[in-house]
Amino acid sequence: METELRLLLYLSLAALIGTCSSQPPLLDQVLEVGELRVVTRDSPTAFVVGPDGPSGPEYDLAQAFADDLGVELVIETVQSVSEVLPYLTTGKAHMAAAGLSITDSRRDYVNFGHPYQLVDMHLIYKLGTGKPRAVDEVLGRNVEVVAGTSHVDMLVSLQEIYPELTWIENADVEVADLLAKVAEGEIDFTIADSTEFNIQRHFYPDLRVALDLELGDPLAWAFPRATGDSLLRRADDFLINIDRDGLLARIKDRYYGHTNKFDYVGTRNFIRHYESRLPRYRAMFEEAAAQWSIDWRLLAAIGYQESHWRSGAVSPTGVRGIMMLTQDTAEYLGLDDRVDPKNSIFGGAQYYARQTERVADTVEEPDRTWMALAAYNVGFNHVKDAQQIVEWQGGDPDTWVDLSKALPLLAQRKWYSRVPFGYARGWEPVLYVNNIRSYYNILRWLTENEEADLREFDIPEEIEPPAPVKPEETA
Questions:
Q1: What is the CATH classification number for the domain harbouring 347?
Q2: Burial class (CB in 10 A: 0-12, 13-18, 19+), 220
Q3: Which residues 6+ apart lie within 8 Å of 248 measured at CB?
Q4: Which terminus of the chain is more solvent-facing, meaning fewer CB atoms within 10 Å of its CB: N or C?
Q5: Contact 92, 37 (CB under 8 A)
Q6: Distance in angstroms between the alpha carbons of the first and the last residue of the chain
C-alpha cells in the first residue's frame, strides 16, 4: 500500500511538472516522494544481484546517498549503457549511476556531477595475435565496441586522424562480453575501461593492453538537464564528504582492491588446477564449508593460496597439508594428522571460522572476511596490533582499507616496538588477502552457471568430518 501511494504521488508530481511552467526542484521531488530513483546497468562495475542480494560500486554509492537524503533507494536497471541516458531523460529516474564517462556528446542531454573516480581507457588484444605499437597498426583489423559509450567517441576522434579506421558498434553486449570475444579470437580488439579490464583479465589471462587511449577519464553521476541542479548540488556535497571521510576509498577497495596485482602465470595455473586438482577435494571443501557456515569457494581459495591444492605440501617453516596448518594449530583443533586432506580442510574451515568469531562485531562485511583471512595468516594478535596503529594514525580500525596500510608497519621498529605482540612481516597478510580475493572471484565466475547438485567427478557422496572442537573447549 505504501509503495502504491508513493507511486501515485510520483505520478502526480510528474503530471504537475508537465502542466506547470515552473516545476519543483528535483531534490524537493525526491524528498516529497520519499525515494531516490536511480537508473544503472547490470555490470560488476555498477550493479549486480547475487546470492547475498544487490551489490556493486554504484549500488553502494547510491544507497549511501539515499541514506544521506533519508529516502528509500529504488534501482532501475537497463541491460546496456546505451539505454541509460534515454531512460533518464524520459523522466523515469532522478539520476543515473552507471559508471558514465563525462563526454561532450552526453553533455547535450544531461548534466554531470562531481567526478568520483578516474579510469584509464585501454585498447585490448589477445596475447600472441600481434600487439600494435600505434593506432595505424590497428587499421584493417576487427574492432568492436559497446554502442553508446565514450569508447565510440574515442574512435570517432581517432578517425579524424586515421580515416581508414573502422569498427563495429554493438548495443546488445557489455564490455565483459567483448573481452570474452577477444579472448576467444572472434575479434581482434575492443576498448575497455581499466576497472572493467582489471576484473575480467583474471578470467581471461591472455588479454593484454595494446594501447592506452586515454588516462584519467573521469566518471560521474548524470542528472536530467531540464530539472535544475538542486539534486546535483546535493550529490556533489555528498561525494566530496565521503571522499574526505574515507567511505569512497572503502567502496573502491571492496570491488577493485584485489584487482591491482595481476599474475599472468599464476592465473593461468589457477584455472588449470581448477580443472585438474580441485575435483579431488571439492566435495570436502563443500562439506566443511557447510558445517562452519562459509562459502566453499572462499575456503577453496584459502586452500589454493596455502598449498595450490596439494595435500602433501610442506613449507620451510614446517606447516603442512592443503590448508597449511601448524603443529600447534592442529593440536589446538584436535587433529591427529594435518596432512590428511579431510583433516586439513575441515581443520582449516574450523580455524578460519574461529578467526571470524574473534573479529569485533562492529566490523561489517566484506571487511570482516578480509580481517579474518589476515588473522588466519599472521595471527589475530598481530591484527589487533595493526588496529591499534590505525587508531594512533586517526583512521578507522574496523575497515580493511585502513588496516591493510597499517599491517606492513609491523615490520618497522618505529611501530612494532610500541605494540604488545611486536614484529611481524605485515606485508604478507596484505598480499595473502589480495590473492585470496582474486582466487575467490575467479571461482565464483567459474561456478556461477553450475547446478547446485552437479558433480563431475568421482568422489564419495558422504564425507564424515572430524569431530569439531567447541569454542568453550579451546584456550
A1: 1.10.530.10
A2: buried
A3: 61, 116, 239, 242
A4: C
A5: yes
A6: 54
Domain of residue 408 covers 264-473
| pTM of the model as a whole | 0.68
Radius of gyration of the chain (CA): 25
pLDDT digits (tens, 9 = 90+) for 41-78: 988 889 888 666 888 899 999 999 999 999 999 999 99
Report the distance separating Cα 307 and Cα 324, nearest Å. Answer: 7
Residues involved in catalysis: 306
HEC letters along 65-96 = HHHHHCCEEEEEEECCHHHHHHHHHCCCCCEE
Q: How far apart are CA 178 and CA 168, in angstroms?
A: 11
Number of domains in the chain: 3
72-98 pLDDT, tens per residue? 999 999 988 889 999 999 999 999 999
* Grid coordinates belonging to 23: 516545476
Rounded distance between C-alpha atoms, residue 47 and residue 57, angstroms: 7
Backbone angles phi, psi at 193, to 5 degrees: -70, 155
CA nearest to 62, candidates 82, 76, 83? 76
Closest CA to 261 of 433, 48, 448: 433
Q: Which three cell numbers stand for residue 352?
A: 578460519
* Same-domain status, 308 and 354: yes
* Same domain (yes/no): 141, 188: yes
Angle between helices 247-256 and 230-245 (to 10 degrees): 80
